[in-house]
Amino acid sequence: MESPLKGHEVPRPNTRDRIVDAADLLFYQTGFEHTSFAEIAAVVGVSRGNFYHHFKTKDEILTAVIDLRLNKTRAMLRDWQAEGQGPAERIGCFIQILITNQSKIVLHGCPVGTLVSELAKLDHAAHDHANALFTLFRDWLREQFVQLGRKEDADVLAMRLLAQSQGVASLASAFRDAEFIKAEVHQMRAWVQSLTPAA
Questions:
Q1: Which pLDDT tens digit goes with each residue over 88-122?
Q2: Is residue 181 a contact partner of residue 98, using CB atoms and an 8 Å limit?
Q3: pLDDT tens digits for 54-78?
Q4: Cα–Cα distance between 1 and 135 in angstroms, integer?
Q5: DSSP assignment of 127-190, as one string?
Q6: 20, 44 Cβ separation under 8 angstroms
Q7: In which residue ranges does the UniProt entry place its DNA-binding region annotation (predicted)?
Q8: What are the distances in angstroms from CA 36 to CA 119, 143, 160, 167, 171?
């Protein structure tokens, strides 16, 4: 009997993709500078020769990791755009990621903020590339605030929300406090609600 799953199998990630996925996680957990080729190769389970076949330098891996994060962020923003019933609800999707990822944030901070901050300290050439992640969120949030009727100060509001979310992630990680995240998310949701025309 023919398998009902035939023709619908999920393709297994190739070696390059597995390397990038492993590097993405390690860069987040231990930092770009403190992650070695050997650590990434060990997680993936590939030989040094196979590893170098795909990436010659750690900077090449960093570029691939940033591209991966940019693609995932664009897909997430498209999902929020499709699922949200209005701008306030869509902004709520952005705020909700603090709750969705709270256990990781408490341990390691925000994956975007920590990477951008580290690359800035290193004066790394990829800093602007990584900062494009923040720009994606800023542009998307600005558009939501425009649709909320706040065209004149939409960018200011977008930056305020970005700043608050980064501050919450940073302090929650510093104090290892998940309850702080929940309380701040509640405040951010109330703030957005206060900006809606019906408020």
A1: 999 999 999 999 999 999 999 999 999 999 999 99
A2: yes
A3: 999 999 999 999 999 999 999 999 9
A4: 52
A5: HHHHHHHHHHHHHHHHHHHHHTT--TTHHHHHHHHHHHHHHHHHHHHHHT-HHHHHHHHHHHHH
A6: no
A7: 36-55
A8: 16, 39, 36, 29, 28
**Sign of the alpha-carbon torsion through 97, 132, 76, 66:** negative
Name the region of 49 (left: φ>0; alpha: ψ -120 to 50; beta: rest).
alpha
By CB neighbour count within 10 A (0-12 exposed, 13-18 middle, 19+ buried), where does 159 fall? middle
Question: Could you give the C-alpha distances from 181 to 108, 113, 127, in angstroms and in order?
Answer: 14, 16, 27
What angle (nearest 5°) sits at the alpha carbon of residue 173, between those of residues 170 and 174?
85
From residue 73, give the alpha-carbon distance in Å to each of 8, 67, 107, 111, 171.
26, 10, 21, 12, 23
Query: Model's pTM, two decimal places?
Result: 0.90
Q: What is the DSSP letter of 76?
A: H
Specify whether the CB–CB gap between 160 and 191 falls below 8 A: no
Are 98 and 184 in contact by the 8 Å Cβ rule? The answer is yes
